[in-house]
Design brief:
The structure is a homodimer. Chain A has 10 helices and 13 strands. By secondary structure, the first copy, chain A, is an alpha/beta fold. In chain A, strands 5-4-1-8-9-10-11-12-13 form a 9-stranded mixed β-sheet, with helices on both faces. In chain A, strands 3-2-6-7 form a 4-stranded mixed β-sheet. At the A-B interface, helix 7, strand 13, helix 9 and helix 10 of A face helix 7, strand 13, helix 9 and helix 10 of B.
Chain lengths: 302, 302
């Protein structure tokens, strides 16, 4: 079943110790869509400027991603520029040029309000709420956010949080949102704010799932090398949601497929840092993905 | 079956944001022995000064630990003093007073050379080798080390590494020892230096086991709070080795019990940071330990 994602479609300039890549395809919706499309059809709602390359739209379309919800406006595409430290984890943001994204008001193409799966990627919580309210009875809604909105738009974030089924954040965001040091306590505090299911991502250390069945800890695939970790979290979200959509899971389902979805998320996310931008997600072979899911399952077997 | 541990028996002065504790029982052998004694009899070889409190020896003895290999010399007990940062992970060493430990030459009480399990805790690799060479055909030898010896005594460390069955290190030590960024590559490089089994500890993120059966990732118990993480790595080693000794595992055994031992290590280690010094390991209830092993197993079940 189809997934609708609303988020950024952007250009990233990424500097690492070894190499710099200028204005490559990025943005939360791009990473998410390429990952999720390995499992289920994906529809993207976003905005790009008149500088956006047709070849990048074609790339998404070639993966079965419906790009008709990506509005093209006069102006520049959202551009993020950052430099990674030697550890390939810490990074400095060099520039954030919002461009046409500054006035983004998500518009759903006719009929898209009936899409059963909704991923509210990391945009202003008021826009997330606007999209959520325009949907017609989705089966499952997953929310992502970031420290910026936790710090500057907490009230709006709490309003949307109260209406979603799953929150997906990283460990520092979970702590910032709740004030809890312990991640178990942070997850309980988030559940008290609305979503009965919480995913806490920990980068190279894997991810945690908190649901009705208790806690699941999924490791990350051990990579020989990290080329560019940008977008790995959004890629995780894509694998997670893609798995659930493929299985037809809804908010009333038990935890079984959510736990499997964590492994799918970790497996897809493991490809992302192995190349710049979305490169490692292009034409990603399902057999290679299945092999990494099997590796993760073996790593978790006592 | 019995375990012999050679390592430091020390006093630690630990400062945290909340509280400072002066000259509490510490040292790798103390943490290891208290953890391992939950599973198997333990013999300690070490040295203390004339300031060492009888009550601390009594505490170890009360846990079934044979302290007759702890030599008492004129001078001061090894004293480490450190201050933890707010994150309770980073720490600054304020003082390292070796005292009688500076001239430590491990002496085994008569008959101890036949102890089947040997844990070479974190002391100079030449002393580790001296103890190893004095043993009579141990069933299993596990080695711990630290960045200091990797940097200053690499040749001696490599000599002892070539003769042991398992190396137990943390992630930064594994990288420093091998020059590999990826932990899988680091483990392979360590295996090429001797030990066919490698454990890489990652603190709050759990631990990895690399053996003939492939890789196992064991999470850490999610704690609400960290009071004092000092000794958690040695406590992990104690649970790991204790489990193996209890099961009578030797170097020719398959990986099954080694994988279970990882869970035992993680479970015991989870108690350590919940109180200062060895406090949380005193009279540690086996039922509470079993409960944490069950929690970890559940966290690993997809």
């Amino acid at each position: 079943m189809s997934i609708l994602v609303v988020g950024s479609v952007a250009y990233d300039t990424v500097a690492t110790v070894r190499e710099t890549r200028d204005r490559q395809l990025g943005g939360s919706a791009s990473f998410f869509a390429l990952a999720a499309s390995r499992f289920a059809p994906v529809r993207v709602v976003g905005v790009v400027g008149d500088d956006f390359r047709q070849e990048d739209l074609d790339l998404l379309a070639r993966h079965g991603i419906d790009t008709s919800g990506i509005e093209r406006c006069a102006g520049a595409t959202f551009h993020w520029s950052g430099r990674y430290h030697h550890d390939m984890i810490e990074r400095d943001t060099l520039a954030t040029d919002l461009g046409v994204f500054a006035d983004f008001s998500p518009q759903l193409p006719a009929g898209w309000e009936h899409t059963p799966y909704l991923l509210l990627a990391n945009i202003h919580p008021s826009l997330q709420l606007q999209v959520l309210d325009s949907m017609h009875d989705p089966k499952l809604v997953v929310l992502d956010t970031m420290n910026l909105w936790i710090e500057t738009s907490r009230a709006e974030l709490l309003a949307v949080l109260a209406k979603v089924d799953v929150l997906l954040v990283n460990d520092s965001e979970a702590r910032l949102l709740t004030g809890c040091t312990g991640l178990n306590e942070a997850a309980l505090a988030i559940q008290a704010l609305g979503p009965p299911r919480v995913v806490i991502k920990k980068g190279e250390h894997g991810a945690l799932y908190f649901g009705s069945s208790g806690t699941l800890a999924v490791p990350a695939i051990l990579l020989p090398d990290v080329v560019d970790p940008t977008g790995a979290g959004d890629t995780f979200a894509g694998g997670f949601m893609g798995w659930l959509a493929d299985r037809g899971v809804d908010r009333h389902s038990d935890d079984v497929e959510f736990r499997r979805a964590m492994i799918a998320g970790s497996a897809v996310a493991s490809f992302c840092p192995q190349a710049f931008s979305v490169e490692a997600l292009i034409d990603l072979d399902r057999a290679a993905l299945d092999a990494r899911m099997a590796t993760l399952t073996a790593m978790m077997t006592p």
